[in-house]
Design goal:
The complex is a heterotrimer. By secondary structure, chain A is mostly helical. Chain A is built from 22 helices and no strands. The two termini of chain A are 48 Å apart. Chain B is an alpha+beta fold. The longest helix of chain B is centred in the first third of the chain and has 22 residues. Chain B is flat, with a radius of gyration of 21 Å. The relative contact order of chain B is 0.20. The chains are: A mainly alpha, B alpha+beta, C alpha/beta.
């Protein structure tokens, strides 16, 4: 069994990374660079801890260590869980692995081992700097450093063990959600609204008027208290922290070892009956009964045909839709939290001007960062683009349908954000809110057209057709860069408009954004007419 | 350029904007010249003949709960405060919450294990008015014997 | 007296000129006189501060400034205005006639001749008034008077020579389209050399201080960009000589405008960044010195932009100092960019950037040293590298004054603010590199734009060609009416991208209706390439393809309407149901609702897909997807049905079903054209076969004939492949 697990693990590792080749010069260089990075990080962490202790007067003790462990390992668990859900249940190499002469639980453990190795390497960059930094600042003894040696190996086991255990019910839940799109959408909406509500509650705890110095003092005190209190609920990490600081060392060490063994055992016992069934059902496509009386309606124009297709596909891939526009979902949060803090301060007239300027920059950064769907609009047609090439009409209208879809969706999201914002923060001048909304819509629409144009000129149809993924897509990167440029450019214009021109500031901003939109519309139309027919798969 | 980098940029800009407005975009605070007249810690168990205040924290401060909060009362309430705290031991960390007039005493594991007795002084740096309290882990067999 | 002098000088000049009989020598003589004129003019420029500059508010517009305007006037208002415009005209004409001998622009010759002659004669007639305008005295034998006489005489001489030339060559009356062009040159040239005190002379201290982004400041910022665009768009279609002439004219104008202000004091030396620009640009343009040009391109443009955005003047808009500042920085900003845009200088490469940095470094070190030295005698601040102007603006004065090195030598104190000056240098270098990226982005935009224009022109041309080929027929009619029921491929060749190798070479084939035509070939033979070119997925490199008489190249939409295509990769929208997908395709082919429903039901029944037609395509097997694509391709009942490897990966039943449909479709008189690399399938179903090997047609066979003659298709095919391989090896 162990031999098979070892072979499966090495096979998967060598497939994912070419670096695991013994003796090659590249490996040594890689190790040397990574070691240098770890040393540098250790120095930085030590300095940070020194600042915490001697400047902020936050105690650098076992409680802080436990808190840091909870935070870092907690985050690791979340990330590993997401990774494991994909790797264990949806990975394409399952088709190869399960056809080999190995048991299901052996495959399971080989995948866990691969995750463990990656987690171990990643943890080196986190744990070594933190632990060594603590040792230096707190003048800890030799036993501490000896404990670190085996702790470096045991900590990833805990996070991976917990993640793999959690991944099972999580994967099951995801499978259920996948089959019920409407439920998925409703849940997502509830989560987002819930998070927004929680954010408003949390932020309203900040006392106004906000004085940054006092707020800062309060913040430091609150954080310090929180660190002490949270550390009690760290379970195994509390045990580890106390062990490292030499409290009931042997007892805590036994608990640690017992926990590790327990996690391994529980994963083994649960995975045996559950893993294969969960993995195979994750890859199945359920056939739902369709109402046979349902007949799609004939479209009256090509534009409507394309628009209908976009809406239908979007409706049935809500997860992809959400991931495309995830950044836009953070817009109401940023707007509310930031403006609450701004409004809570006793601002001068210059402060009011800076508030407007910052709102322009930050809303544009977020809004334009969500137009990556436009930057891959043609690319994501993949091989289906052939259908458009063979169709006997001017199918460049497909571009306008996609743009309309993206425009409608982003405008609705932005409008919702501004609406929530205006309701949550009534003290912010209403006129400024709606002028800012109009401005953002203009610039964002121009950016949608610009992103589409980027994809029009360099579509990556065959890449997408073969991989099904837009990861590392150059057009996405260019779209984000142009969005960044626009945010800074209009930020600079906002400085001139609101600080120097003042009373006609909004007029200038709206005029500039309208001119930008008109220019991009005209340019895009020209490029579409000239180059759409030249696109070849 | 990726969405993650963009998100980091947004966060950085947000924080910078708050700092910018806080430093250059706010009106200066009105100075408050009201001085402290008295500063009293009124939560304690007993006093000795010298009037020193004592508080038994044996049942409050444990390995699971290492924080003890001292509340002090300032008169007048709107006085201009600049609170400083000090202790007789290095085994504690003191955090002052001037907004709520509280001092949080964070005991280290070592101090809890050794059941250290610690005296905390709370002082207003402007007027030098102060008060003290001693925190100790009183066991049942210990009594305070008054001087005869 | 002055008229006598005028005629004498002109007479002597003519004599010298017409002595040189050869044209080449005449040209050379004209060049020498032009250079001489320029030098004489420079001498006047450097040695004269005109009294006319102090004339204030001739039109009595400014009622706010507390100056008695009339006390400043040298002449009556009418005469003042006349003299101002005469001097303006002289300046513009002078540059035309100085530049003409080196660039031979007909427009310059014409304008120089007409304007120059009229202006020159007027200058002599109003000679006294000019003397008053210079130095407020009319002493005819003063140094100034003699110098001006020589200058005017030279000026008039060259103008008259040009006038004689255009009369001789009968170019006196320009063509109609030249009128507009010359008018624009006049307007542009006059603007370029506008006397900088003109507005002050006429209107007084009009306008606000153009600073801090007031409306006049915004105008000052926007104007250089507008000017650049206007000049570029007006001149981009001119020939290269005209473009070079414009840049040269601007360089000369920049130079003369800069030295309008006296420069004798140390503070006024042209050592600020944008001041050096006017010198270096003139030298660069005249002598083609790349280092100087690219230094201006990278460094001066930045400096000029900063100066326009953050000016350091404090006078009103129409005052001399503001106009002078404006012109200086306008030219420093505009000329380098225009020179590259108009191809007078090529686009910079990294080597030019490094040269620019080198020149900038030399300039910077010189300026730092000169600042330290000259501040012993006067308050100088070249490039703002000495005073606290910049550090005060950014609130970092400590950086400058806390890190200073000072020493004395020969009684002179030398002060260096080493940290500030080093940081300033490094920041400027960084900005130069940033400008590289900005320029690069702009170049890409410009290239994209010009490619777009070229493409649009090509599209128009193609449309005109089509109309010509149709010879009066409607675009909806077939190019080749005789090819109604066939696919006709004529000498078709296809190359991919920049590759030299042809994927298909000189392929010709005719496929008629009622046939199931097989297209056989090994992997990579060119089958899919040919098919994709027929259906319009890929372009055609050479040759022609007609479907039902319509050219796929020139009449693609009409041709595609008649084609149904089954691709080799049955990619479909997996999130749609089968029915939704068919409806989508039917919408694309404009199939009416009743017809599509009927056809869908029939085909789905035939292909046993009725049960699954309302399920998501994601749940379909490979065969089901293929069948769906077959239905989609037949929904509009195309006369030409093209299938690319349709039976790959299908089970026997599905294969049989598709083959039956192919037979039915062909039986109706339609064309069925399909490719395969499986000989047995092709043998069974086809009536005719074409074999393609290494991109070339190796044979067309009638299956019935082969059967009658008992010839094995497989052997024939292998023979064809070997022949093809030998041919390829030979090549």
């Amino acid at each position: 069994m162990f031999e098979r697990i070892k072979i499966l693990t090495l096979m998967q590792l060598s497939n994912k990374s070419r670096l695991y080749v013994k003796g090659s010069k590249r490996v040594y260089v890689h190790i040397a660079i990574r070691t240098a990075i770890i040393i540098a990080l250790t120095v930085i962490v030590s300095l940070l801890l020194h600042v915490l202790k001697n400047i902020l007067f936050i105690p650098v003790n076992e409680f802080l260590m436990i808190f840091i462990l909870i935070m870092t390992q907690g985050l690791n668990i979340i990330v590993s869980t997401i990774g494991l859900v994909s790797d264990l249940y949806h990975s394409k190499d399952n088709q190869i692995l399960f056809s080999l002469a190995a048991k299901n639980d052996e495959i399971f453990f080989s995948k866990i081992m691969v995750t463990y190795v990656n987690e171990f390497v990643r943890n080196l960059f986190i744990l070594i700097p933190i632990f060594v930094g603590f040792g230096v600042i707190s003048n800890l003894g030799i036993l501490y450093y000896i404990s670190l040696i085996f702790l470096i190996f045991l900590l990833p086991i805990i996070s991976v063990g917990i993640s793999s255990f959690i991944s099972m019910p999580f994967a099951s839940f995801l499978n259920y959600i996948k089959r019920h799109n409407l439920l998925s959408a409703i849940l997502s909406l509830i989560v987002i609204l819930g998070l927004f509500y929680l954010t408003t509650l949390l932020v309203q705890q900040i006392p106004t008027p906000i004085r940054i110095v006092q707020l800062y003092n309060r913040f430091v005190v609150s954080i310090t208290i929180a660190i002490q209190r949270i550390a009690q609920y760290g379970s195994i990490y509390t045990v580890i922290g106390k062990m490292l600081f030499n409290y009931h060392y042997l007892r805590n060490l036994l608990i640690l070892v017992g926990t590790v063994l327990g996690l391994i055992a529980i994963n083994y016992l649960v995975s045996k009956p559950v893993y294969f069934r969960l993995m195979s059902t994750s890859q199945e496509n359920t056939v739902r009964k369709k109402d046979k009386k349902y007949k799609p309606v004939e479209a009256t124009s090509l534009f409507i045909t394309f628009l209908k297709k976009e809406f239908t596909i979007a409706r049935r891939s809500l997860n992809e839709l959400l991931s495309n526009y995830a950044l836009l979902l953070t817009l109401p949060f940023f707007m509310f939290v930031l403006n609450y803090i701004y409004m809570g301060m006793n601002r001068s007239s210059f402060g009011n001007q800076v508030v407007l300027i910052m709102n322009v920059i930050i809303t544009l950064l977020i809004a334009t960062g969500s137009n990556t769907a436009s930057a891959t609009a043609i690319t994501t047609e993949g091989y289906e683009f052939v259908l458009l090439k063979t169709a006997p009409y001017n199918t460049s209208r497909m571009a306008w349908a996609k743009i309309t879809f993206n425009f409608v969706f982003t405008t609705l999201m932005i409008a919702l954000s501004f609406f929530l914002f205006s309701k949550a923060l009534p003290v912010f001048p209403k006129q400024d809110i709606w002028l800012l909304f109009l401005f953002v819509i203009f610039v964002n629409s121009g950016h949608i057209l610009w992103s589409f144009q980027i994809d029009l000129l360099t579509p990556k149809l065959s890449d997408y057709a073969s991989t099904g993924s837009i990861a590392n897509n150059h057009n996405v990167s260019r779209s984000l860069s142009t969005g960044l440029f626009l945010a800074f450019f209009f930020g600079a214009m906002a400085i001139i408009a609101f600080i120097f021109i003042k009373e006609f500031g909004w007029t200038l901003m709206l005029l500039l954004s309208a001119v930008f939109l008109a220019y991009r519309f005209h340019t895009f139309n020209s490029y579409l007419n000239a180059y759409f027919d030249d696109i070849e798969y | 350029m990726t969405k993650k980098i963009l998100l980091v940029l947004v966060l950085v800009f947000s924080i910078l904007s708050i700092i910018l407005i806080a430093v250059w975009g706010t009106l200066p605070d009105q100075p408050n010249h009201i001085q402290v007249e008295s500063l009293i810690i009124d939560s304690y168990d007993e006093t000795n003949d010298d009037g020193d205040k004592f508080k038994n924290v044996a049942n409050i401060v444990t390995e699971q709960q290492n924080i003890y909060t001292i509340e002090y009362v300032v008169n007048p309430g709107n006085a201009n405060l600049d609170i400083g705290v000090s202790s007789t031991s290095t085994g504690v960390n003191l955090q002052v919450d001037m907004a709520d007039n509280k001092v949080h005493v964070l005991f280290s594991m070592e101090a809890i294990g050794a059941k250290e007795t610690i005296t905390i002084q709370i002082k207003d740096k402007n007027t030098q008015i102060s008060d003290e309290i001693t925190l100790w882990f009183k066991t049942s067999d210990v009594i305070i014997v008054p001087d005869i | 007296m002055n008229l006598l002098v005028m005629f004498a000088v002109i007479g002597i000049a003519f004599f010298i000129f017409f002595c040189s009989k050869k044209t080449m020598e005449k040209d050379k003589t004209l060049k020498i006189f032009s250079v001489l004129l320029f030098l004489v003019y420079l001498f006047r420029l450097f040695t004269t501060q005109d009294a006319l500059n102090n004339v204030f508010n001739v039109l009595l517009y400014d009622i706010e400034t507390p100056i008695n305007s009339e006390d400043t006037w040298l002449f009556s208002p009418g005469m003042t205005v006349f003299i101002l415009f005469l001097r303006w005209s002289t300046m513009a004409s002078m540059l035309w006639i100085i530049i003409y001998p080196f660039f031979k622009s007909l427009s310059l010759k014409y304008l120089g001749a007409i304007f120059g002659t009229i202006t020159g004669i007027l200058n002599f007639i109003f000679f006294d008034q000019h003397l008053i305008a210079f130095s407020n005295n009319t002493d005819l034998w003063s140094f100034k008077s003699i110098q001006y006489m020589i200058e005017t005489a030279l000026f008039l001489f060259i103008a008259v020579v040009l006038l004689c030339d255009i009369i001789q060559k009968k170019e006196i009356i320009p063509r109609k389209k030249e009128w507009l062009r010359r008018l624009m040159i006049i307007i542009g040239s006059f603007f370029a050399v506008m006397p900088q005190t003109l507005l002050y002379n006429l209107f007084g201290n009009y306008g606000e201080v153009p600073d801090e982004f007031t409306y006049s400041h915004l105008f000052v910022i926007a104007f250089p960009f507008l000017l650049m665009f206007v000049v570029y768009y007006v001149t981009k279609k001119e020939n290269q000589i005209s473009k070079d002439t414009i840049i040269t004219y601007l360089a000369f104008a920049a130079f003369t405008q800069y030295f309008y202000m006296r420069r004798e004091t140390l503070e006024a030396l042209p050592l600020h960044l944008c001041n050096t620009a006017v010198l270096l640009l003139l030298l660069a343009v005249v002598f083609k010195i790349n280092q100087f040009f690219y230094f201006s391109y990278f460094a001066n443009v930045l400096g000029a932009l900063a100066a326009i955005l953050l000016p350091n003047y404090s006078s009103d808009l129409f005052t001399f100092s503001v106009i002078h500042y404006g012109y200086n920085h306008l030219y420093a900003f505009v000329i380098p960019i225009l020179a590259v845009a108009l191809h007078t200088f090529p686009r910079p490469v990294l080597k030019h950037m490094y040269k620019a940095i080198l020149v900038f470094s030399i300039y910077y070190v010189s300026v730092v040293f000169l600042n330290a030295w000259f501040n012993n005698f006067a308050t100088v601040d070249y490039f703002f590298a000495y005073s606290d102007f910049l550090t005060d603006m950014f609130g970092v004065k400590e950086i400058q004054f806390n890190y200073m090195v000072e020493f004395t030598y020969n009684g002179l104190t030398f002060r260096f603010f080493w940290l500030f000056q080093t940081l300033y240098f490094l920041i400027f270098i960084l900005l130069m590199f940033t400008s590289w990226y900005v320029y690069d982005a702009l170049f890409q935009m410009a290239d994209q734009h010009s490619r777009l224009k070229a493409k649009q022109a090509l599209i128009k041309l193609d449309h005109l060609k089509l109309l010509k080929m149709l010879d009066g027929r409607m675009p909806s009619e077939p190019m080749n009416p005789g090819g109604k029921d066939m696919i006709k491929i004529s000498h078709f060749s296809k190359k991919y991208g920049q590759s030299e190798r042809f994927a298909v070479k000189d392929f010709s084939l005719e496929v008629k209706g009622g046939e199931i035509f097989g297209f056989l070939g090994h992997n990579g033979a060119g089958k899919s390439t040919t098919i994709k070119s027929i259906v319009g997925i890929q372009s055609i490199t050479e040759g022609e393809i007609e479907v039902c008489g319509y050219s796929i190249k020139s009449q693609p939409l009409e041709a595609k309407l008649r084609i149904g295509y089954v691709s080799d990769n049955h990619a479909v929208y997996e999130k749609l149901t089968g029915r939704e997908y068919i409806y989508y395709v039917a919408d694309l082919y404009r199939v009416p609702k009743e017809t599509r429903d009927e056809r869908l039901n029939i085909l789905a029944e035939k292909l046993a897909l009725s049960e699954a037609i309302d399920q998501m395509i994601k749940s379909y097997s490979h065969g089901m997807k293929q069948k769906l694509v077959v239905i989609a391709s037949l929904i509009h009942e195309p006369p030409v049905w093209i299938l690319d490897e349709p039976l790959t990966g299908l089970d026997p039943i599905s294969s049989y079903q598709i083959k039956e449909i192919m037979r039915e479709h062909a039986a109706k008189g339609n064309i069925v054209f399909f490719s395969s690399h499986v000989i047995e399938v092709v043998e069974k179903i086809c009536t005719k076969i074409a074999v393609i090997t290494q991109g070339q047609l190796t044979g067309i066979y009638d299956i019935n004939v082969l059967k009658d003659k008992n010839i094995s298709l497989e052997e024939l095919y292998m023979h064809g492949i070997n022949q093809g391989k030998r041919a390829a090896e030979y090549v």
